[in-house]
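[Archive record]
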Amino acid sequence: MIAGVRGGLAAAWARQRWAVAAGQLLWFACMAIGIACSGGIESAVRVEPKPAGPDLWLEVFLNNAKVAALAFSGVATLGLTTVAFSLLSGLGVGVLIGHAYALGGGQLLRAVGPHAVLELPALGLAVAAGLAPALGLSRRLASGRGAPFSQHVVDAAVLFGTSLAALAVAAGVETWVSPR
C-alpha cells in the first residue's frame, strides 16, 4: 500500500515538474521584486513575541493554509487567481522581508530562517498546484498530447496536499524552534 502511494506521488511530481518549476519561479520572483522595492515603502515590521504552544502552532498553520488555499484557487480559474495571488502576496512578503532585513540581516536569519526554508517553498508549491491544470491544458492544446485535464486536477490536489504537509511542519518549526 505504502509503495503504491509513494509511486503515485512520484508520478504526480514527475508529470507536474514544469508546474512546480513555474510556481516556484513565479512566487520567488514576486518576492524578489518586493524585496527590491521595499526601500521606498513605509515599514510595518514590528516584533510581537507570543508564547510557544499548540495554540500558536494552530494559528500559524491556519494562517499559512489560508494563504496556500488562495494560491490553489487557480485550479478553478485556470491559474488566473494564482497569478494575481502571487503578484500581491509575493510582493507583500518580499516587502516584509526587505523591511525585516533592514532591521538586521543576522537577526532576520535567526528569527525566520529556520521555518522560512520550509514555509516559502511550500507556498510556492501551492502556487504550482494552482497553475498545474492550466499548464497541463495549454500543453495538451499546443501539442495534442499529454495527460487528460482531470489528471492535472488530481495532480494539483497532490501538490496542494504536499504543500499543506510542509506548512504543518514549518508551523511547528516556527512555533517551537524559531526564536520568540
Q: What stands out?
A: The mean pLDDT is 84. The chain is about 80% helix and 0% strand. The two ends are 41 Å apart (CA to CA).
